[in-house]
Amino acid sequence: MNYTFHAMSAEKLSFLLSVVSTIGPRVDDFGSFLRRNKWRDSQTREAEALKNQAKASLFAIKQKAEGEPNAKFKEADGDLYTKIKEVEGLRAFGNGQGFYVKTLMDSFGGSYTVARDYLMINNEIFENIVRINSDVVRGLQPKISIWTNGGDNLDGFRWG
């Protein structure tokens, strides 16, 4: 229900006043009283359900808000753990390689040349060099010509 008031002053201010009124049950009609209570109970249950739904939504939002930093922190911890393990693995690999080289050098009496030649033979470096060079020559497709004096006589050329 709305009431409009006009103030009696030089400015003649008008304003709107909203009014809510509650009508209760008739005192002499018990059925009216029961219907009102039933209606009020349904309104109360509905309001409680909405209130609980709002609380649940708020709780979910809070959990999500609190969970995101925790999830990011856990993700950062996982990344850090992975990096630490990678560094430890590299350190262990380097220590193993150092021990291997030291053992080789000790085996060959400290001779770098002998240790280098051993590693080149063991890792098939010479075979790879020969293969690469032969591939290069094959790619050039060389034309090899043998010059003779015109006959089948190859005097001066010795086989063997």
TrEMBL record:
Alphabetical keyword list: Cell membrane, Membrane
Q: Output the InterPro entries linked to this UniProt entry.
A: Flotillin_fam
**What is the recorded membrane topology of this protein?**
Lipid-anchor
Q: Which range is the signal sequence, renumbered to this chain? A: none
Give a GO cellular-component term: caveola
| Main location, first listed in the record | membrane
**Record's subcellular location:** Cell membrane; Membrane, Caveola
Q: Which family is annotated?
A: Belongs to the band 7/mec-2 family. Flotillin subfamily.
Q: Which PANTHER family match?
A: FLOTILLIN-LIKE PROTEIN 1-RELATED, FLOTILLIN-RELATED
Q: What is this protein called?
A: Flotillin-like
